[in-house]
Every structure is written in C-alpha cells, then in structure tokens.
Here is the input.
Amino acid sequence: MNVPLSDALFARAKQSIPGGVNSPVRAFRGVGGTPRFIARGEGSHFYDVDGNDYIDYIGSWGPLIMGHRPPFVIEALKSVLELGTSFGAPTGREVELAELIIDAVPSVEMVRLVNSGTEACMSAIRLARGFTGRDLTVKFEGCYHGHVDSLLVKAGSGVATLSLPDTAGVPRAFSDTTLALPFNDLESVEAAFKSQGDRIASVIVEPVAGNMGCIPPAPGFLEGLRRITEKYGALLIFDEVMTGFRLSRGGAQKIYGVTPDLTTLGKIIGGGLPLAAYGGRKDVMSCVAPVGPVYQAGTLSGNPLAVTAGIAMLRYLEDHPETYDILERNGAELAAHVPAGMTVNRVGSMVTFFFNAGPVQNYEDAKRSDTAKFARLFHFLLEKGIYFPPSQYEALFISAVHTPAEIAQTARAICAF
Ligand code: KE4
Here is the structure.
C-alpha cells in the first residue's frame, strides 16, 4: 500500500518532533514501515491522509470503547463549547463525574481528577508513601504505569517495544525505590515483604496486564496481593487505566472481587479527551492537599471539555449495560481462532495474539515471542485495511461498535496469514 502523504508527513514530522511522534509506540519501531497519519475516525474505522480505510484495533490505546466520535460524546461537547474551555476554578460537572466514578468502582470512596494515566499513577504511589511513611514501591515486570520516573523499571508498553534497558535519565536513587517482581509470582512478593515489608509503601499492579500483551492474573494472584499488603500494612494499588470501565463498569476489581486501597483510572473515563483519575479509601485520599500533606496539582485537571466527554461516556455505559455483553462477544469471537504457532490471551475485549508456543503468563514468557513474525502479521493485516497496535507487547482494543462482520473478517485474515 503506497502512502505518499503519510511518508511525506513522517519525514517532515521527524524534523520537529522526536521520532516524528508524540508517543514512542506510534512510531512503528516495533514493526517497521511508515506510521499512518490519520485524517479522521468514524465508529470502528479511521482513515489516513492518503484516504485508506482501516478497521481500528488501537482505539486511541483504549479510550474509544464506543468507537470514534460516538454521537452522545460529540453532542455533549457541542452543548458546552460555547461556555468556555477552561476556568481554573471548580465546576459542577467535575463533581458529577467524581460521583459517577465513585458509584461504579468498588474501591473508590473519593477521587481526584488529573490529565493522564501517568499522573494518576505517579500521584497514587506518592500518596501511598505519604500515608504509610514508607519509601518503596513494588511493581511487576512488564507492567506499565506511565512514564513515572521510579516506575520505569522493567516496564512494558513502549519501553518493551523499544527494548529499552529501563530508561536513561532516571537516577539510580529513584529506581532503587522500586522492586520489580515477576507478574503472577506470589512467592516473590512474599519474599520481598519478608525481607523489607516495613519499608514497602505500596504494591501497584495492572490487575489484568495489558502492556506486555494481555496477561490475565493467575488464580489467587490478586487475592494474594490483597492478603500480603494487608498483613504488612502496605497499600494495594490497582492500575485500572486500561481495564477500568473496559472489563466492566467496576473494572477488573469488580470481576475478580478484590478491592484495592487505591485505583488509578484513565482512557475511557475521558471519553477520548485527556482525563484520568486516582481514588480510593477516604482516609487515604484525605491525605491529599489541600486537606492533607501530600501535594498534587494540575492546571487543566478536571478540564470542563474532558469532564463533559467523560460524563457522557460513563452515563452511556451506565444506561447501556449490554455494552459489556457486546465487548465480551467481540473479544471471544476474535480469539476463537488460534492459528498454529500462536497463543491468544484474552480477558473481555482485551486480546493479544502472541507468536509464542505458550503459555504466556509473565514478562519472560512474553519476551520469548517472535516479534519479527508479529511485525509481518501486522503489515499483512495493514495491507488488508486492518490496523493492529504496532507492537507484540500491546493488547488489541476492541470496541462495542466493531461489527460481527468486521470481527469475522479480522479472524479470517489472521488465519490466512
Ligand atoms: P498515559 O499517561 O499514557 O495516559 O497512561 C499511562 C498508563 C498507565 N497505566 C496503564 C495500565 C496504561 O496502559 C497506560 C498507558 N497505556 C499505553 C498503551 N499500552 C499508552 C500508549 C502510549 O504510550 O502511547
């Protein structure tokens, strides 16, 4: 497929933006070739500047659970555009969004809105340190919690895609505050707490990992984290930036029946605009400034446009619970056909096709995947107008507006590879 306009834009972009992109994973470094510069989106499709039409399985990396430009979000934004774009003062709509989140997510009694998942995770681990008076954070290899200095240790997503040995620019003193353990390995968590439990402020985990490809929690893993953190007085943080409102309105914590002390959210709650949040136990959240001593702030936090889109999205999901049946059906249909030599992991609409004999249950397993073969599949599908996330270490983001025919077309194309 010739994409002369994307080629030209990419060459031009690389003169003014590092790698020509504003987020590394978009640069196709994991799969090669020219990233498509997108002109517009509609439902489950988007269209590049050369006019090519793609079934979109990136979905803006998770927010677009109802596809591009859902009418109820566009109408909501149109209704407030004339009122102003930002005030730097509280608004009623922020309260409404906070209450919608609290009503849906079991662990959240109080919530603070921020602008990105990175901010939410950075704030949550700082809050855990401030609440416990301890310094260390436990994370899991292959999990990604945004580009938080101390959490860029054996991180997933773009860090894994680019095979970056952690990240330059993070002082050893920062990364030494993080213990990175194997995902799904409770024994390593027990051992860490046995040796340094009185120094560990929190355990942060993607309850369903999505940043080393999709990897479900092993039976008992999340329950074990809850037990161990309670035993040692550390806080359990579920990073539900990806899983929140995707796996259910109550996120993964609702499905697995494990309630963390803090939860981070993002992506879907902004309805496609920049918005994220962290929340949890009221006694913990009461340590956040201006009530308590843990400082966190943001010029555009609770931005009226992003909040309006978020309210429209969360109200839609509240009023249309059948959405989650559609997401489950779409995920199951796509994952039903597993070509030889591949392993498919799936939870709901989060799916990853690994070029790996399997099982894929942690980062070491995932890293044994044949990423060169994945790259060939990616381009094979791209040529057929099917746009997968450009990395073996990402989950597909299926929406509720991908039709059965599009899912079947995609499954056939994968099997034809
Ligand atoms: P942001 O700062 O990118 O809004 O959120 C960071 C983040 C935190 N926690 C989880 C579980 C996440 O998946 C993310 C971001 N996800 C990646 C996709 N795997 C964002 C894509 C990108 O970096 O461009």
Summary: Residues 4-69+321-416 form a domain with the Aspartate Aminotransferase, domain 1 fold (CATH 3.90.1150.10). The first strand starts at residue 38 and ends at 42. The pocket of KE4 is lined by residues 23, 25, 61, 116-118, 121, 144-146, 157-158, 206, 210-211, 239, 241-242, 266, 276, 394 (CB under 6 Å).
